[in-house]
Backbone:
């Protein structure tokens, strides 16, 4: 459990303010040592990951250890953003988990084809969301050995 010593960044790409609040509350309730950051669409996600535009300062906007990705967002949806992330040699090692309202088999298949690491349908209740946050955090941040982000 080597990753549990320091606060790790989870970047959530989701345009729904209620879902953002739900996610924030769930991770706070889970008592995991994480720093939750939010972006509202795929273009903003890519700007953050590439440290462009308002996200240029790497001290203020550190690379995430994990990305939680909604598939249905404006400007650039999660599928398109995932395709860009997994085709970029500097970004493709960041684990990406689809956390979406979709239950469509075509979305599951397509996202796995594009390189998603896990696909989770958003829960309806805060209790279920907390359980998912705890499980995600424990698995991705405590159990799994994540690659360290190389310095630029």
Residues:
């Amino acid at each position: 459990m080597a990753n549990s010593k320091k606060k790790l960044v989870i970047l959530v790409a989701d345009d729904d303010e209620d879902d953002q609040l739900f996610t924030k509350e769930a991770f706070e309730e889970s008592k995991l040592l994480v720093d939750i950051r939010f972006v509202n669409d795929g273009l903003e996600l890519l700007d953050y990951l590439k440290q462009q535009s308002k996200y240029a300062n790497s001290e203020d906007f550190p690379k995430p250890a994990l990305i939680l990705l909604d598939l249905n967002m404006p400007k650039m949806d999660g599928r398109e953003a995932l395709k860009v992330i997994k085709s970029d040699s500097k970004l493709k090692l960041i684990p990406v988990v689809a956390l979406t309202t979709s239950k469509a088999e075509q979305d599951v298949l397509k996202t796995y084809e594009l390189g998603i690491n896990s696909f989770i349908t958003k829960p309806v209740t805060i209790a279920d969301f907390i359980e998912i946050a705890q499980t995600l955090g424990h698995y991705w941040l405590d159990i799994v050995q994540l690659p360290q982000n190389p310095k630029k």
In short: Strands lie at 8-13, 34-39, 66-69, 96-100, 118-121. The chain is about 40% helix and 15% strand. The domain at 2-143 is CATH 3.40.50.2300 (Rossmann fold). The chain has one domain: 2-143.
